[in-house]
Amino acid sequence: MQTFTPIAQGTSLLNLDNTQILIDCAESPPAKLIPHLILLTHPNNVLSLPEFYAQTNPKPTIIATLPVINLGRITCLEHNIPANLVDSVFDDIRNIKFAENTIFNGISITAYSAGHSLGGSIWHLTKEHESAIIAINWNHSKESLLPACGLYVDGIIPEHLKRPGVLITDARNSRIILPPRRGRERTILELLDSTIEAGGDVLIPIDPGTRLLELLFFLDKSERKFPVVFLSKNGSRVLAYAKSMLEYMKDVNPEDLEFKNINAVSDLSSLDEIKGNKVVIATLEDISDLSADVLHSLSPDPKNLLLLISRSQDTDYGIQLSETPIQANTTKQITFTRRVPLTGAELAVHQQAEAERKRLLLETQLLEQRNLEILEADSESEDEDEELLNPLGEFSKSFDKHRSAGPLKFPYLEKRRRFDDYGEIIRSEEFVRHEIEETSTAIKFKQGEKRKWEEVQEVPVKLVLETSSVDLRLRIAMVDFEGIHDERSLKMILPMVNPRKLILCRASREEIDALEVDGLRDVFRPLDGQTVDVSGEITSWSVNLDDNILVNWQRFEQFSISPLSAILSLSSQPPVLQQSPINASGPAMFVGDVRLPVLRRGLLSDGFQAEFSGDGTIIADGEVIVRKEDQGRVVIEGVGGRRKFWDVRKLVYEGLAGV
């Protein structure tokens, strides 16, 4: 059984064979929902995850790639989520690499590149005959830093991702066709250049998790150099994380990530110290926190420019935005964040909660330490043949006067002595002289200086959101730099994947309703909270093979196949295939699908001149024609007496498995 429920924008629930799988956690799921597994697609879809994880018991398993873990952590911190909640969840996430397979509750889970963000993932789930592909916010085009998505590689769909039981994807940009990426990048550089030359500043508000590194890398490596300032409370951590995630980037060396032309600052005072006109890349994308403060300072000057790079930002400005800057002359409500110290009852509640958290943490640490000591003792007793002697012998007594069963013993666990080739192993920490430690500590203080025994505790604060109206007199432009598919790519790639059932979500209702995909009949457009049943229509059984049955396994892609002449015995469960006394083998069959782009590359590598001629036709050396007709039928035409015909025929057959 397989069902899907969109919970909210950025959060969905997939039920695969009674395993509840939460897809992202951008908004809080219902309190009664306790998923077994959480899959994260992109770093910006995690804002409700720390609080949800802290309140959920038992804890679900969370799987994501390393960049999603690192950048998701930064995203939560930038949104002022408490660090203890952020660390508690992101430290528990299971890291997985692209194309790495892991098993959870019998479900095979594999991640592939989504292309929209660093480490952003397309998830492929399979269990028996049920399969699902989760492709949210994917990009089929390569960029400066990010590779293309794994769903569409070199113009084809990988065989293992074709014809899934269900494809879950978003319908964003389904009503627009984007200009080429190079043209949009050129437009961004021209806008920055013209604004700086005119004596203005540029503000680019951005999400810290998805498009930030791609934008920084693009500006850092561009031929036109601008004074670029990256304003973020965790900017240095983002740039440091980038160097540890090279395997998720496209042909990048560590030297390429020095960001020599990017100046990272963490507060407005440091920004003000940088003189001259500049490009400010500030968090957050929704014009709040630091980006709101920068916009407030830039808004009165008509020479300044607010450059939006996401269509989701194109709201509440009262004007139709485009790549051509437009003078705003409007008023916008902006949310500012202010830190206020806790006092009175709020401070008491905070201190009580902090004390309870430290108590639980200490209990957990002591329990883990006790379990570790017991495991070490058990391991030592297995390694050695000597018996553990009780130092008190028969006179041992118990301090538990209520204990009645079993021998009375003092509650003491003696650690076994361990030996190596040179005798008893000595633990150096047991022989440390404490007076040396005290001396080394004492030299840190100058003579006559009072020694501080406790660290100064920071005053706890709370975040207060204040909304105010700002008169915008600067220019505003919008250039799409989201790195997401458009109408053309959706209508081209989705039919190539050819899922049995398609689910459209994570977009506006207008975009979802507008997308029509040729050749796909079962298309679902559920509303938030609406559950749709997308169970497969294939009936399958598990059978065992008798030990005496004759099989001739052939490896074909990720499968092993063999022809069988067998009788199905239902006397046991699961049923058993037994060797048939009659050889009922029929004519030879071929398993697989001839993919013309792959065939053409094979012909070229073997020295043929291979060109496409019309739909579904390849001409090799002007003599042999390979044509793919309806229902997958392949026709090879040529002069049978010539060697080229048989060489082409051999290459066609090598792409199939004969049984």
From TrEMBL:
Family: Belongs to the metallo-beta-lactamase superfamily. RNA-metabolizing metallo-beta-lactamase-like family. CPSF2/YSH1 subfamily.
UniProt KW keywords: mRNA processing, Nucleus, RNA-binding
Domain Beta-Casp: 212-321
Species classification: Eukaryota, Fungi, Dikarya, Ascomycota, Taphrinomycotina
Main location (coarse class): nucleus
Cell compartments where the protein resides: Nucleus
GO cellular component, one term: mRNA cleavage and polyadenylation specificity factor complex
Pfam families in UniProt: Beta-Casp (PF10996), CPSF100_C (PF13299), Lactamase_B_6 (PF16661)
Name of the protein described by the UniProt record: Cleavage and polyadenylation specificity factor subunit 2
Biological-process GO terms, alphabetical: mRNA processing
Signal peptide segment: none
